[in-house]
Amino acid sequence: MTFFVDLLAATLRNATPLVYGTVGETYTERSGVLNLGIEGTMYAGAFAGFATAWATGSPLLGLVAAIAVGIAAGAVMGLMTVTFGANQHVSGIGLTIGLIGLSEFANRLIFQGGDLQRIQPMPSLNPLAGLGDIGGIFNQYGLTWVAFLVVVPAAWWVLQRSTFGLEIRAVGENPEAADAAGVSVVRTRYLALMIGGALMAIGGAFFTLALLGSFTLDIIAGRGWVCVALVIFGRWRIGRGVLGALLFSLVFSLQFRLRILPEFAELPFEVLLALPYLVIIGALALSGRNVAYPGAYLKPYRRS
Amino acid sequence: MRRISPWSTPVLVVSAVLITFVITAGPILAAGASPIEAYVAFVVLPLTSQFTLLEVLVTSTPILLTGAAVAIAFRAGYWNIGAEGQLLLGAIAAAGIGTMVGGLPPILALPMMVAGGAVAGAAWAIVPALLRVRFGIDEVVTTLLLNPVALLLVNGLLHGPWRDPVTGFPESPRIAASAEFPTLVERSRLHLGFLLAIVVMAAAWYILARTPAGLRLRATGLSPHGARFAGINVGATLLGAALVSGAIAGIAGVSEVAGIQNRLTGGLSPGYGYTGIVVATLGTLTMPGVAIAALFLGDLTVGASSAARSLGIPSQLGAVVQGVLLLTTVALLAVRRHRTRPADAAGGGRPGGTADIAAEVSA
Amino acid sequence: MRQPLRARPSRTHSRQRAVTDSAPALELRGISKRFGSLVANDDIDLDVRGGEVHALLGENGAGKTTVMRIAYGLTHADAGEVRIDGRPLTVRSPRDAIEAGIGMVTQHFALVGPMSVAENLALGRRSRGLVLDLAEARRRAAHASERFGIRIDPSATLADLSVGQQQRVEILKALSRDCRVLILDEPTAVLVPAEVDALFATLRALVAEGVAVVFISHKLAEVRAISDRISVLRRGTLVGTVPGSTEERELARLMVGRPDFGIERPPDARPAAGDSVLTVTDLHATGTAGLPVLTDVTLGVRAGEIVGIAGVSGNGQTELVEVLAGMRRPTRGTVRVGGEELAGGDPRRMMRAGIGRIPEDRHASLIGDLSVAYNLVLERLDDFRRGGRIDEPAIHAHAEELIARFDIRARPDDPVAALSGGNIQKVLLARVLSRNPRVIVVSQPTRGLDVGATEYVRSQLLERRAAGAAVLLVSEDLDELLALADRLIVMYEGRTVGEMTRSEADLERLSMLMAGREAAA
Lengths: 304, 363, 521
Fold this sequence. Notes:
Shape of chain C: globular
Helix content of chain B: 55-70%
CATH topology of the largest domain in chain C: Rossmann fold
Largest sheet of chain B: none
Structural class of chain B: mainly alpha
Number of domains of chain B: 1
Number of strands of chain C: 22
CATH class of the largest domain in chain C: Alpha Beta
Helix content of chain C: 25-40%
Low-confidence stretches of chain B: 343-352, 359-363
Oligomer: heterotrimer
Largest interface: A-B, 58 and 59 residues
CATH class of chain B: Mainly Alpha
CATH architecture of chain B: Orthogonal Bundle
Radius of gyration of chain C: 25 Å
Largest sheet of chain C: 6 strands, mixed
Mean pLDDT of chain B: 88
Shape of chain B: globular
Number of strands of chain B: 0
Mean pLDDT of chain C: 83
Number of helices of chain C: 17
């Protein structure tokens, strides 16, 4: 029993950065922009959060710093894709390379490559501790609680039930129509990118501020790319994307626990680590055939 | 005196470099160094001594190949972001074959290794390519996701069956002497890989620019619909481009193993596959452009690591410069395209098609 | 009172309207606009009064759409002024136009397919609140439905509606923003005659309420049926503003500069005879979402004849051409050329069988970023190789020859995207016709072309016919079909619904068939 409780708790915990990242990327892609800068944004968020928390002693300030970095990254992506109308694939890769480089540059500059610095990570909360064994599932970091109880429902509601969400969807499907209706395509896409960037950065900061309490190179390890895959898997819907995040996280958390079992002792642990990525590719192969991309996906908008 | 258009490609790329230097002056100042000194150290200093010049060529070798690989794929409209993983698979193949060809003379061992690496790289590229061609599944995500998997594969081998039995370190056994790439210039690290890169790029250039297959590939990248309408087999073209791209990236992996490390190591590639994207874009997807861009980035990389020592600027600045350079180049290319082709009507390819970063019309 | 439906909009009716004598609702003064070297509008003055239907009449490319897009803020004028009720107005974007009370229904609807009608109506309402008020959108829809007779289901998904219904949603959108000037750009281009009647009834109801309606069109009969005044544009200039009852010949003269713009048809060289070269039998095809787009299509084209396909766009013509071009797989049926079975073949197969294909989207059929020379040989690169390499000199020579022969105003190395529409069409023609195909499948060949290019293209088709090719011509231009085709076939909702020879054909019968009403035997 404790195995399952433990597994579920781990699944929720490990899914947290993916949830932030996937929701953030869903917003930007729904507005018509592919943001491959997500990997770099998560990375920069992780570093900025850590460095600020380390300097000020406050993880909360770290979180604020991460959000600021995420917004800035989103704005840069907006400048490239919306204002200049540049190729989105390459812009995103450039942003990722630049942000990872900048983070590692700053890391080297500030911490001089010395011993690994640690901060006091954010605490976990368990309001249902009294529930005994099962209560263990709810022993999660604040950011995890916020992710599932606040961010996901709010993101869904805003996208489906608010004027702003309507504008994002319109701009992503048919920007000419949105423009003709008086909606500012530029403003909407910038906002979607900045909100998305902020969420992505929070997802990255989760690693340093909560999960690990320290910053190491390759801390994101491709999970930004996973979020991009999850958005497609989720057919650009918040709920389904979160489901995908849970699936990935389940496989990820599971393989850690499988290693202990004697049957899997011989297997190099890397094989198991690769499993979640392969599962996502498989999921895409099965369900991702000829999906309906947002109508304006990848197309810069120019009023002629 | 012929007037050079302010929007011609060479002017554009030079402008991008200059703008990049202005932007990256910020981090340099934060590191407490003078930007001018830094740029001199980055760009000029490596060219001043024979040793560093050769080092530039050595550093350029893998990115000449990954740049070419990415350029070919992008030119066809196939977004191969997985060159990093394909390179690693080529390296794995080289390390494996390299230890098995001990008894053979180099004239047999070397081609076997290169061929094996090419096949391995292509094999890593084939699944995303098939998913794209048969099922329309976006190759950006699938190629991207296979990069971390490839790294896990490398680490798995190094921590497991290929752990060096002698030293116990997570690095593979040394490849046979006949499998090592010979050095081209005494007392330098410049190895056969550099020549191999030149040959591969020359062949790629010829095929793209002068053969019907190359024209079909270019047409497919510019407008898949128009190409299909003209009777070109778009699916086969994409598949071919993806496999060739993977193969060349695999050869880059072979080059690093056989020419530099002589074994498979964990840190074999500090992101050469991603740098290939920078190189391909800077070079506007043409082989001559890729060559210049790769040499320039090699120059910067060597300069950055020496500047790290002499000026106290972290060498990671190189990556920052790469990123900013890529962004400014792509931004300028986009502005140019929107100015010369405002309506953007005729022949527009698939959204996000390569027409906006490919050199127009000519190879 | 709803007017009874008729096959053709009638010419005479009286109507009450509240034409005001005060400042015109919308005024354009001295509007000029160029696109590169093309002068789209040259110093245009226009005024539209409340309670009138004011038509903008002109051929394709006369500048009618451009000048109204300027009024609506979708484009900016190089010079000139827009006035609302006599007050100057700066229109930077559609938002400014909407706020000033101007609404526009563009040719390509500004609607979002996957969203519901209510959501589309709510878009751009700029409601004060954060919350999306779909209930309010529904209320407005109900209100307009009563007032103007526009009935629509607010919860329907837009993509599921018919074109006529979608247009109604567009109009509703404009009305729900209290527009006082409603601009409609070629609204009847996508409607069958019954829907045109419904639209006209709606417009009459609107002007009765004092709304000013601008009706952009190139169709003489409709413009005369609905308009109070007609402003004629030709080549970017305003030629004159005349009453809606002006005679057709006079309007034609203003539009084209000559009274008779019918197409001269040379006397028949020789009538077609013998078996069909191109035979299509029982063709079926499915579109997105599994809906049928072609059902039971059967037709034949003989050597030396032109068979015209008539029909409102969207009734399967495009899909038929796609199948014949090899760009779409049919689900059932056969396509034969000279006895060779071809259905489901890819473009290569169709070309090799001798089908020359000139589809309606000429931009997508060529590769704009490649040169004229490369585009001309792209279908047959293997004929231009020397060993393993491309034979550049041969390609260049070939291009020069075709440029001369087909009067293409371009150089071999020019990128196709830089050419004018007419020359792009000529490149496509040259590529196809230079191979003397025995079957030619051509769709909307003169759409968007100027008079000179149009005549050239039509003469080429007639020349091919005289040389013995079997030509299948799809066109929305009934005049074009009546002039060029030996036989006419009407398509409606994916089926062939009627066939007649040129001498049997008349506008009334064709309209009935195009509207889905079976003609009497």
